[in-house]
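Hey, I'm writing a tutorial for new members on how sequence and structure tokens pair up, and I'd like a real worked example in the thread rather than a made-up one. If someone can provide the structure for the chain below, I'll link this post from the tutorial.
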Amino acid sequence: RNIMSKPNILIVWSNYYGELAKKQLDSCVQRLKQSSYSYQIETVEAGTYEIPAVIHYYHHNKPFEGYIPLSLLLKGSTDHYEFILDHVKTCFTRFAMDGILIGNGIISAPSLDLLTSRVEQDERVDEAYRAIDYLIRLTHKK
């Protein structure tokens, strides 16, 4: 890696919830614009479930130094929500053990009202940024 180049982060976001998801993405982009990182955005034209596959694809074909997954997951009346959350957690744990750096920005909530307020309060975006920033700095320590 060129010493002068800025570490590159890939935001992997699901646009499943339209405007609300866009608000989350905009918040993350603002945070990265104020940082020392360059970034790119990959829009997952599906839901949360597909995000790990997209990160896996990039890491093995066009690697970035870190990844920020962004998605909104609404708990419905089915067990599908738990299935998706369990899948993502399993994949992210495996990624961490394989050295794939992730700042998790996925927000889950039991109601649309709570999901909306969490997005509007930038919940998870700041935590995701701080996590990826720390992990990248950690891997660059001599």
